[in-house]
């Protein structure tokens, strides 16, 4: 042969499966007719366990009820890193789909030999394998003869999308009945035999050092088992939760703290962010093939405040020592990563530590789950092998857990004589958006910074753009401007602790880009939907914008006090597409009446689950936009309860209408973070539509609205 | 220690404990009843709501003594998988939660509403649940579920 076709690249295993190739680590079959599926991703209220069960059942051809989902543990589960970034369906789902396809084939091969029937003539229905002549066997009959202690191979081919029976259907989530009938599913509701209760003593003032601790009063409290102190780390252990609370109150009275570290001025975050030592990075550059002539420059600054995770439950963990081994139960997003940090602090080999996941309340990023796990492990060292359950207080949860980072964003556009964008630049000042455990030579856990021999406080970093970026997430425009320059300035100081919160920097960046675009479109007198469509080349992007606009009957006729705005983004520029039309009512306060969204997550495994995530994201984003801002004075975080840190209430929640564009042939994408940026921008744009005021500093509270009006007038 | 007597989910009980302790602490700590959840300890989030008589009350903010001789109903007393309360059925049908931590308190608030107003409007449901916080954004599904339960009871 003279001409050689380019050889196709050899098939590759999905990433999670390549990292954990042993098939038996993902699934096992029992002779009793069950298949046990063991993913490395965890349930954090997003319904992932159900979606993964659907994928497995589908690929294996078994009823969903036969699938038993195992909680993730470092003792046995595949290591899939962290459950974050809307990647669980992409990563775990793809790995499971591939593993199940291969396992199905292994069973069919054996069945073919047993039954004397060609493999292609065999069929599987609910685990029963049958062929011509009424021959049959089943996974369950063959279970003991098939060893899955072998590595996955790249050749297995999952079913065609059109042959999947379960994926694409809104099956009921498997965890919901327990939660509705109050079966103890949450870590908070577990009781281990002999369990003790721990509480942490932490300062009011930021990072204040504990200089003296008089334990006398606390020692008189009934039920006290131990007072643990190591530097500024201090806590109590009691026979009862009530006793632990009482001992903590007494111990607090005996505590003397040195002054803490000063905090920034909460009313001038942009100045603070820009005045810090910075690490500056060019995120992306695009040069115009034929540079256009800029006639004038438009420059705007946008800010968002620090935002709290503010989960309804304070973080909780349990730990139990046995000699030099410790078992930890946690609602962490990454059991292996937490284990790595525990090993650093406890100075143990990782083999001596088992970390097991249990569900907590809704998790929206790197909250205090990991911190409290170390607290529990440290307190439990003092209890001669009895397990200790530690629960943070509401105040601790709202002040000591990492926050989503505050951001200042400047966008500058050069416009030509027709008002068309010829050049665009986008600059971000922000702390890093990730200081997760398990990824560095130093731990990221709070107690580690408090010990007598402390580890250095971790300064948040940003994941690279290849992983979606951090502060710079969604800062590269999807719009086809002729040229741009995107840069990120990461703070090298961190007086307020930040780490990953839902969407990382995407909420701020999308708010800025989409607000600015709206402003330019308005100046041109061009409809903002048409303006966006004109600058997009990606049909899926255009489809969600058109769908949202159509569904919201864009643009509804004007009514006094009512405004409509649009926002769009593709999360991380590689994930789900989402467009939103917001309808708001503006008076002294802004209320959001309705959000109409269109979303494209590729193949939606569980459509209702996707819609649930989008609705939830839209409502949470509305709460961020209208209400949320971590409050502090120069000494301490002051927004430590629900009065000082209000979130959206039932009476304030908008109607949310979601159109899901199902694309069964496209790779499935996560839905949990798609709505936040677009909703934020859509609300801000609707506020302008209603009141003629551009609010560029979040949240859109009465105060910020008045400040923006003064700037406008 | 004086004992406090009340009916918990229809069963008479005596509790020997400091009457100033919170009802939530007694339910969870003393009686091992984990349906009502601790959220804030200040009566601000509703995760620990229980019925005292027909009223939804934050158990974290209620001293034990004030429960004396009262009828207390927790989520466990509303229904079970075998005999679900219409609200529990409706919350499953509407898939009306994400993490579900707030849901036991929300079901209790909703049960109190349906007792005093068996046919609420959507606005009345939102008002009745306004003291309950949900962080995942499942509010609209929950409102739909409460309306569905009301419809189901009315159709009987």
Layout of strands and helices, then pairs:
The complex is a heterodimer of chains A (713) and B (156).
Chain A: H1 15-19, E1 27-29, E2 35-37, H2 48-60, E3 67-69, H3 88-115, E4 123-125, E5 128-131, E6 135-138, H4 139-142, H5 176-180, E7 196-201, E8 210-213, H6 216-219, E9 224-230, E10 233-238, H7 241-253, E11 255-257, H8 269-275, E12 278-286, E13 296-304, E14 316-322, E15 325-330, H9 335-346, E16 353-357, H10 369-380, E17 388-391, H11 394-399, E18 407-415, E19 421-430, E20 484-491, H12 506-524, H13 528-534, H14 539-551, E21 562-570, E22 577-586, E23 590-600, H15 607-627, E24 655-660, H16 676-691, H17 702-712
Parallel strand pairs in A: 2-3, 7-17, 15-16, 19-20, 23-24
Antiparallel strand pairs in A: 1-2, 4-5, 5-6, 7-10, 8-11, 9-10, 12-20, 13-18, 14-15, 14-17, 18-19, 21-22, 22-23
Helix pairs in contact in A: 2-3, 9-10, 12-16, 15-16
Chain B: E1 3-8, E2 11-16, H1 23-30, E3 49-52, E4 55-58, E5 71-73, H2 75-78, H3 86-93, H4 103-116, H5 122-128, H6 139-154
Parallel strand pairs in B: 1-5
Antiparallel strand pairs in B: 1-2, 3-4, 3-5
Helix pairs in contact in B: 3-6
Describe the 3D structure.
The complex is a heterodimer of chains A (713) and B (156). With 713 residues, chain A is of the alpha+beta class. Chain A folds into 3 domains: 164 residues, Aldehyde Oxidoreductase, domain 4; 160 residues, Aldehyde Oxidoreductase, domain 4 (2-Layer Sandwich); 270 residues, Aldehyde Oxidoreductase, domain 4. Chain A has 17 helices and 24 strands. In chain A, the strands form 6 sheets. Chain A has a 7-stranded mixed sheet, sandwiched between helices. A 5-stranded mixed sheet of chain A has the order 12-20-19-18-13. Chain A has a 4-stranded mixed sheet with strand order 21-22-23-24. In chain A, a hairpin with a 2-residue loop joins β4 and β5. In chain A, α9 packs across α10. With 156 residues, chain B is of the alpha+beta class. Chain B folds into 2 domains: 75 residues, Ubiquitin-like (UB roll), CATH 3.10.20.30; 76 residues, [2Fe-2S]-binding domain (DNA polymerase, domain 1). In chain B, strands 2-1-5-3-4 form a 5-stranded mixed sheet, sandwiched between helices. In chain B, β1 and β2 form a beta hairpin. In chain B, α3 packs across α6. The longest helix of chain B has 16 residues. Chain B is globular. The N and C termini of chain B lie far apart (48 Å). The mean pLDDT of chain B is 97. At the A-B interface, α5 and α15 of A face α1, α3, α4, α5 and α6 of B.
């Amino acid at each position: 042969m003279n001409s050689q076709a380019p050889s196709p690249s050899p098939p590759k295993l999905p990433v999670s499966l390549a990292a954990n190739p042993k098939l038996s680590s993902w699934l096992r079959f029992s002779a009793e007719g069950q298949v046990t599926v063991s993913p490395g991703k965890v349930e954090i209220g997003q319904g992932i366990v159900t979606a993964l069960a659907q994928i497995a059942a589908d690929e294996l051809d078994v009823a969903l009820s036969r699938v038993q989902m195992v909680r993730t543990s470092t003792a046995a589960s595949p290591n899939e890193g962290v459950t974050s970034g809307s990647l669980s369906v992409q990563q775990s789902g793809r790995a499971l789909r591939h593993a199940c396809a291969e396992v199905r084939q292994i069973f069919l091969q054996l069945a073919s030999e047993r039954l004397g029937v060609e493999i292609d003539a065999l069929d599987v229905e609910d685990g029963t394998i049958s062929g011509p002549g009424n021959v049959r066997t089943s996974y369950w009959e063959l279970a003991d003869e098939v060893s899955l202690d072998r590595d996955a191979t790249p050749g297995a081919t999952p079913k065609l999308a059109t042959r999947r029976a379960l994926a694409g259907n809104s099956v009921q989530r498997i965890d919901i009945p327990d939660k509705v009938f109050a079966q103890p599913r949450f870590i908070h509701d577990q009781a281990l035999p002999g369990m003790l209760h721990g509480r942490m003593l932490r300062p009011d003032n930021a990072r204040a050092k504990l200089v003296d601790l008089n334990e006398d009063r606390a020692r008189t409290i009934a039920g006290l088992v131990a007072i643990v102190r190591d530097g500024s780390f201090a806590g109590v252990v009691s026979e009862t939760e009530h006793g632990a609370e009482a001992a903590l109150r007494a111990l607090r009275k005996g505590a003397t703290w040195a002054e803490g570290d000063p905090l920034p001025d909460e009313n001038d975050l942009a100045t603070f962010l820009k005045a810090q030592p910075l690490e500056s990075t060019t995120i992306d550059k695009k040069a115009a093939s034929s540079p256009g002539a800029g006639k004038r420059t438009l420059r705007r600054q946008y800010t968002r405040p620090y935002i709290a995770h503010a989960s309804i439950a304070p973080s909780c963990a349990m730990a139990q020592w046995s000699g030099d081994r410790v078992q930890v139960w946690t609602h962490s997003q990454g059991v292996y990563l937490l284990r790595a940090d525990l090993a650093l602090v406890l100075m143990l080999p990782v083999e001596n530590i088992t970390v097991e996941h249990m569900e907590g309340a809704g998790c929206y990023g790197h909250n205090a789950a990991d911190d409290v796990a170390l607290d529990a492990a440290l307190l439990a060292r003092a209890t001669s092998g009895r397990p200790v359950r530690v629960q943070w207080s509401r105040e601790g949860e709202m002040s000591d857990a990492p926050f989503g980072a505050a951001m200042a964003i400047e966008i500058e556009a050069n416009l030509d004589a027709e008002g068309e964008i010829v050049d665009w630049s986008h600059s971000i000042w922000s702390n890093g958006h990730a200081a997760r455990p398990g990824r560095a030579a130093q731990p990221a856990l709070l107690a580690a910074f408090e010990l007598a021999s402390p580890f250095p406080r971790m300064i948040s970093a940003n994941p690279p753009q290849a992983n979606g970026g951090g502060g710079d997430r969604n800062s590269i425009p999807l719009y086809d401007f002729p040229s741009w320059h995107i840069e990120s300035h990461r703070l090298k100081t961190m007086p307020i602790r930040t780490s990953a919160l839902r969407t990382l920097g995407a909420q701020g960046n999308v708010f800025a880009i989409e607000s600015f675009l709206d402003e330019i479109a308005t100046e041109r007198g061009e409809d903002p939907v048409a303006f966006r469509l004109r600058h997009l080349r990606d049909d899926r992007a255009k489809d969600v914008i058109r769908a949202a606009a159509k569904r919201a009957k864009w643009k509804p006729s004007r009514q006094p006090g009512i405004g409509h705005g649009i926002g769009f983004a593709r999360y991380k520029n590689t994930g789900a597409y989402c467009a939103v039309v917001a309808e708001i009512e503006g008076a002294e306060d802004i209320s959001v009446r309705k959000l109409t969204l269109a979303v494209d997550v590729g193949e939606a495994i569980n459509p209702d689950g996707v819609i649930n995530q989008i609705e939830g994201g839209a409502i949470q984003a509305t709460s961020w936009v209208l209400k949320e801002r971590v409050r502090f004075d120069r000494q301490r975080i002051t927004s430590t309860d629900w009065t000082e840190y209000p979130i959206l209430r039932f009476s304030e929640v908008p109607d949310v209408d979601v159109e899901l564009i199902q694309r069964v042939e496209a790779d499935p994408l996560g839905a949990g973070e798609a709505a936040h940026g677009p909703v934020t921008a859509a609300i801000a744009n609707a506020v302008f539509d209603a009141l003629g005021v551009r609010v560029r500093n979040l949240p859109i509270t009465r105060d910020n609205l008045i400040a923006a009006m003064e700037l406008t007038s | 220690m004086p004992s406090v007597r009340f009916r918990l989910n229809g069963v008479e009980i005596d509790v020997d404990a400091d009457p100033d302790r919170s009802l939530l602490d007694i339910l969870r700590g003393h009686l091992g009843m984990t349906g009502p959840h601790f959220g804030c300890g200040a009566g601000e989030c509703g995760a620990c709501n229980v019925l005292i008589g027909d009223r939804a009350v934050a158990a974290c903010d209620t001293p034990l003594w004030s429960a004396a001789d009262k009828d207390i109903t927790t989520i466990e007393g509303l229904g079970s998988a075998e005999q679900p309360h219409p609200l529990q059925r409706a919350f499953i049908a509407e898939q009306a939660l994400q993490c579900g931590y707030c849901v036991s308190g929300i079901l209790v608030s909703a049960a109190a509403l349906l007792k005093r107003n068996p046919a609420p409007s959507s606005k009345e449901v939102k008002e009745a649940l306004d003291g309950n916080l949900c962080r995942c954004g499942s509010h609209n599904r929950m409102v739909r579920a409460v309306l569905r339960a009301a419809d189901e009871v009315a159709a009987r």
